[in-house]
Design a protein that fits this description.
Radius of gyration of chain A: 20 Å
CATH architecture of the largest domain in chain A: Orthogonal Bundle
Number of domains of chain A: 2
Structural class of chain A: mainly alpha
Number of strands of chain A: 0
Helix content of chain A: over 70%
Oligomer: homodimer
Distance between the termini of chain A: 71 Å
Strand content of chain A: under 5%
CATH class of the largest domain in chain A: Mainly Alpha
Largest sheet of chain A: none
CATH topology of the largest domain in chain A: Tetracycline Repressor, domain 2
Number of helices of chain A: 12
Chain lengths: 209, 209
DNA sequence: TAAATAATTAACCATATGGTTAAACTATGC
DNA sequence: GCATAGTTTAACCATATGGTTAATTATTTA
């Protein structure tokens, strides 16, 4: 029952450590020494497993970009959900994801703005196919009786409403909740139903034009 | 007609250069040499005018934080605007601001996440008074027949919808617009009316519950 | 078990970077 | 014209940082 190989364990220790450090500090702010310390290993070992900081970073980034992207296909294609339920599911799952990974939004936004070409570079590997996604949105637009343009705005609005509360946490918490973490967390929990309600009301409200 | 003093000019040249570099690259990514080059001066001169990178950065950040914060008081307190018009004004002005300063949202979000305490530290100097702001929102909530909780969500939702399209530009442009800058810009312009409409529909839609 | 291979470390290296110094240059006041 | 204070520069410094090397210690394999 002796552990045969430590290497595999070391690799995942490195990945865990790198993830924690990179997500909080970004590529520019992270130090290889810091990651080594966090993983409890020698700095040279980092370069033994991942040749360079860049390589290690991209390994982490690819994975986190995949997490970041909402997996719309299963929800939107479901036949036994009303449009309203699809929206509720989406919002709830997406906000829950960020409650579990609160630093993910700020991390991804920071890195794609540092180097925008990284998006095109990794979008495929992150399991996103823009064309298929746009087709999907087109179908959903029809279902909701929206133009594709309106659908794109709707999508961006929903995603914004889910992501910004996390990416803007320091500001929101300070300005709206007097730096009270508990109040801010309560706000996040309410938000799952609030955003869905808000969107659904808006779609209904169009009828009142 | 000879220029009497160059000094003042030098200082503003430095500030302009620092602003450009810091906003695009952040504190961690920016290099003092780069800022000096951008300003067309010697690196030592940077330290002559602003003792350290940190000091120079904070000078820029303070100013940009002030820009970033929506100036709600004049709009929300106006007596001759309907709530609907207040929302329309706010959204249009806020999005227009970011069309002029497209890197501002990503910059502020990056830096407040790098060092959250910077918000509390500079919120006063940026001309924001959280208490007064919350009072203002309370009044507006009454005007709209909303609870304070709903008002906070509404506020965050509107701000999210304005900011995220800029902070998330690399992703949105790539995924939704196949990397076409023109399409993305058109989207931003539509967005001014779309977001306002969306919010107003939602408030009306509540009646259809 | 001995050779071969993989994992790990301490010490090192080259370069980049924020920051300093001392000297030179410029304008201004007397 | 000269002294003084303010401005600008080239050269320099200490340190941090990503990365490498060579030796050491497991682990595998024949």
């Amino acid at each position: 029952m002796k552990p045969k190989k430590i290497e595999k364990d070391t690799e995942s220790r490195i990945l865990d450590a790198a993830k924690r450090i990179f997500i909080r500090k970004g590529l520019d702010g992270a130090r290889m020494q810091e990651i080594a310390d966090e993983a409890g290993i020698n700095k040279a070992l980092l370069h033994y497993y991942f040749r360079s900081k860049e390589k290690l970073f991209l390994t982490i980034f690819r994975e986190e970009l995949r997490n970041f992207f909402p997996r719309l296909f299963p929800v939107l294609l479901s036949k036994d959900l009303t449009p309203e339920m699809k929206i509720r599911h989406f919002v709830e799952n997406y906000i829950d994801l960020f409650i579990k990974e609160p630093f993910l939004p700020a991390f991804v936004l920071r890195e794609v703005n540092r180097n925008p070409s990284i998006v095109a570079q990794f979008i495929g590997e992150a399991g996103i196919e823009p064309e298929k996604l746009r087709n999907l949105l087109d179908v959903f637009a029809t279902e909701l009786n929206l133009t594709m343009n309106e659908m794109l705005h709707l999508m961006v609005t929903i995603v914004s409403a889910c992501i910004f509360p996390f990416a803007g946490k320091p500001i929101i918490k300070q300005v709206l909740f007097d730096d009270n973490e508990g109040d801010y967390q309560k706000f996040l929990n309410h938000r799952k139903t609030y955003v869905a309600d808000f969107v659904i009301h808006s779609l209904k409200g169009r009828l009142l034009k």
